[in-house]
Structures are given as C-alpha cells and as structure tokens.
Amino acid sequence: MPEPLPIRSLHHVARVTRNLEESRAFYRDVLGFREIPRPQIGFPGAWLSNYGIQIHLLVNDAPEGRHDLIETRDNHLAFYVDDADVVERLLTAHVVPFRVNLQRDTNIKQIFFRDPDGHHVEV
Fold this sequence. Notes:
Layout: E1 7-17, H1 20-30, E2 34-36, E3 45-50, E4 53-59, E5 76-81, H2 84-93, E6 98-103, E7 108-114, E8 120-122
Parallel strand pairs: 1-4, 5-8
Antiparallel strand pairs: 1-5, 2-3, 3-4, 6-7, 7-8
C-alpha cells in the first residue's frame, strides 16, 4: 500500500460564485475576511484571508460540468504540501486520476483530483 500524501495544512476553501461582488462583501463584511492579492489566472474571482485560512471565490457561470472531469473552477478544499512531485507519484500509486496546472505568474504547481464522492481536492 502506498504511503499517504504529505499534507502539511489546509490552505484554502474555494467557493464558486455567480455574483462576485455580493460574495466578496459577505465574506469581507459579515465574516471578517480581508482581500489579498490574486494572480491573473484567466477568470474573475477574489482571494480573502483571515483566521489562518483563505477563501478563494471563483466565478464560474458555465452550466454544471460533467462529473467525470477534474474541474479547477469548482468548489474544493486545497491542502498545502512541500513537494508536489511526491504528491503526483503517490496519487499515481493510489491510482487516483489527477490534473496538473502550473501557474505562470507564481510558478506554483496545482494538482486537482476528486475524492470517491466526486468532491474536488487541490494540493
């Protein structure tokens, strides 16, 4: 049996929104999160942070996606890891399909996959 992924902590929770300004105001004004810089990643959204956690608001006005695809613009949990290459190796060993994105602005590697119930996870 392969070893588990080397997760260090929860990094962010991503929430899909169709009304960015209303969601931004809710998380900022009601829940006390503060907006933080967000790289240009090809679609609108906002990143907010407080209490040791980030909330990533993702604008996705497309119709519901197919459940067999790994979608980067869907609700998901994101965990922080020190070595994304180890995660790729371990996901392969666990026979978990995944999708890799490399953010050009930050040189951050994102790995997306689904849990057995179809919920998206990012590391």
